[in-house]
Amino acid sequence: MADYESLEKLAGAVVADLADSAKAVATAESCTGGWIAKSITDIPGSSAVFGYGIVSYSNGAKESILGVNNATIAQHGAVSEAVVGEMAEGALRLSGADIAVAVSGIAGPDGGTDDKPVGTVWFAWAVRDGADARLDTSCERFTGDRELVRELTVAHALQGVLERIA
Predict the structure, then answer these.
(1) Which of 6, 37, 44, 114 has the fewest Cβ atoms nearer than 10 Å?
(2) How many domains does the chain have?
(3) Do 121 and 106 form a contact (C-beta atoms < 8 A)?
């Protein structure tokens, strides 16, 4: 069962810090299916800091909406550093936000491989820096059932946003 209270506190801190900094965030989500955006928009006042949440579950959506290159997906797979980087950059470009977070992973119970077992999730945070963007990525391997992997992904994504608000 998800720890909604902890996610609510974390999302509340993200919204408050973004508001205090006069910044906005956007999301590009695959394995979480919009849960990061939901966590943020559950917080009263979030409309001042959140305008875009893109669920790009399929590769086609990643390509057509976020501009992820088909060759990147073909070479690295949808669950990869290269793909989440392009997802985050696409969300930042589309939204005009100051920070974009992107996630792509294997929540399970199926779909894992030896190289990318169930619980593997790639994260990217694109942070606007003038006309350019700084990109940070990380890979986590969470254990647990599908619900827990997704919950931990949401928490890690929100924590990453919180750490990048300046």
Answers:
(1) 114
(2) 1
(3) yes
- Containing structural domain, residue 59: 4-164
CATH of the domain at 152: 3.90.950.20
Write the pLDDT tens digit of every residue in 10-58: 999 999 999 999 999 999 999 999 999 999 999 999 999 999 999 999 9
CA 125 to chain CA centroid, nearest Å: 7
Length of the chain as a residue count = 166
pLDDT in tens, 118-162: 999 999 999 998 888 999 999 999 999 999 999 999 999 999 999
